[in-house]
Amino acid sequence: MLVVPDPKVVRRLLTRYASLRIALAEGEGREGTRELEDVSYTLCITMGTRNVHEAIAAADTLLVARVGRSSVQEPRSEDGLPAVPSGCSVPVDRSCTAP
């Protein structure tokens, strides 16, 4: 049986990992190094990977897939097609880019 991590937990781990990386890059003390190691390890265990880069990729994939299956309905136009904000074009990857 495959256990899927809770997206909220994954988001919290990714946020903490990123915050610690930024703090360390800005020279904010060595005490963050141990916490970064702990968060990295927890992220790897949670995502079932052996290194933090794989864990981040797996977490991103999980969160993107979760958004794709979201029960939130897209706004629809009168013709029943998804509504597109004015000034935006929607390419195949569904990202919004200004003209």
Question: What would you note in describing this structure?
Answer:
54% of the residues lie in helices and 0% in strands. The protein has helices at 7-25, 31-47, 52-68. The protein has three helices and no strands. α1 packs antiparallel against α2. The protein is elongated and about 40 Å long. The N and C termini lie far apart (46 Å). The chain has 99 residues and is mainly alpha-helical.
List the SSEs and their pairings.
Blueprint: H1 7-25, H2 31-47, H3 52-68
Helix pairs in contact: 1-2, 1-3, 2-3
Overview features:
99 residues; mainly alpha; 3 helices; disordered C terminus
Structure at a glance:
The chain has helices at 7-25, 31-47, 52-68. The chain is an all-alpha fold and 99 residues long.
Q: Which class of secondary structure composition applies to the elements?
A: mainly alpha
Strand segment tally: 0
Indicate the radius of gyration in whole angstroms: 18 Å
Strand percent estimate: under 5%
Terminal-residue CA separation: 46 Å
The tally of helices reads: 3
H/E element string? HHH
| Share of residues in helices | 40-55%
Described by the principal axes of the CA atoms, the overall outline is elongated
Low-confidence stretches: 84-99
Rounded average pLDDT = 78
Q: Major sheet: size, sense and barrel closure?
A: none
Give me the oligomer status. Answer: single chain
